[in-house]
Amino acid sequence: MGFIITLLIGGVAGWLAGMLMGSPQKWWMNIIIGLIGGVIGSVVLGIIGIHGTGIIGGIIVSVIGACLLIWLAKKFLK
């Protein structure tokens, strides 16, 4: 059950980040971006001492990380 929730959080986070960054993707790319963004967000925010707990905290951390991922991709892929 935890795996399904992780995929749902990743999908929501990827979709929100795509909307915020003006880069909407297909549903499967949203999940991938959200999952990778969750890892990036956890590392970056963990370094400065911020941790997200629960589903809402996980979504927020994942969205921040996914936005960073999209921003970096736009910078380096241009």
Identify the notable features of this structure and list them briefly.
single chain; 78 residues; mainly alpha; 3 helices; 82% helix; 0% strand
Show the helix and strand layout.
Blueprint: H1 2-21, H2 27-47, H3 54-76
Helix pairs in contact: 1-2, 1-3, 2-3
Notes on the structure:
The structure is a single chain. The longest helix is centred in the last third of the chain and has 23 residues, at 54-76. This protein has one domain. By secondary structure, it is mostly helical. 82% of the residues lie in helices and 0% in strands. Helix 1 crosses helix 2 (27-47) and helix 2 (27-47) packs across helix 3.
How would you sum up this structure in a few lines?
The protein is 82% helix and 0% strand. With 78 residues, the protein is an all-alpha fold.
Uncertain residue ranges:
none
Number of strands: 0
- How many alpha or pi helices? 3
Morphology: globular
* Cα-based radius of gyration, to the nearest Å: 12 Å
Q: Which bin fits the share of residues in helices?
A: over 70%
Cα-to-Cα separation, first versus last residue: 39 Å
Please write the string of helix (H) and strand (E) elements: HHH
What is the mean pLDDT?
89
